[in-house]
Amino acid sequence: MSQSPPLPQPRSNAIHKPTSDGGIEHTAAQFLPPSEWLALYRSYKILLFPPQILLLHLISPFLSPSPSFLHHSSLGSPPPNNVDIPTIRQRREGLIAFTRTGTPPWTEKCISRKIISRPGQQSILALDEAGPELAGTHRKGETELVIVEVRRKGKPTLLEVRRKSDVLMPADSDRDEVGKL
């Protein structure tokens, strides 16, 4: 019986060239405003995970299109040519300024969700820790927001971003960790 040769060890600095999977995983790219992705999620047409929901929720106010754009987008027609460039520039600058706010700033936050409460058919997911892979570092996550996971028949059906102070009672915020996701 012959032994297989050892597998080569991956190099940490290797840069892999992307290759096509023949259209199995992704068939097309679709570019929509964050508010439209959230609407598709809420209507159960797409699946999003807590980090995606959080980020789309946060950037949506800065990147929300004008009502005229939304009207044309929902009809499947191109937006009007008179896009307000100064408004777009102002919104982008607002988003960039937002990413520099917070403690730590959003550009440095690391978010790992953990269940901190399970009232009724809900789970409340904290976002304030960086996760086990960053244990021992000083990395932190978001302290003021949580994800509320509504469950039906034991399965998550809807995720909502809420302020921690609106969702948790003072005694809940001091509770031990219920479990990690």
SSE diagram, text form:
Layout lengths: L33 H9 L7 H14 L3 H9 L9 H15 L12 E6 L4 E8 L10 E13 L2 E9 H4 L2 H4 L5 E2 L1
Antiparallel strand pairs: 1-2, 1-5, 2-3, 3-4
Describe the structure.
There is one protein chain. The model is unreliable at 68-75 and 172-181 (pLDDT under 50). Strands 4-3-2-1-5 form a 5-stranded antiparallel sheet. It has 6 helices and 5 strands. The longest helix is centred in the middle third of the chain and has 15 residues, at 85-99. The chain is of the alpha+beta class. It has helices spanning 34-42, 50-63, 67-75, 85-99, 164-167, 170-173, and strands at residues 112-117, 122-129, 140-152, 155-163, 179-180. Helix 1 (34-42) crosses helix 2 (50-63). It starts with 33 loop residues before the first helix and ends with a strand.
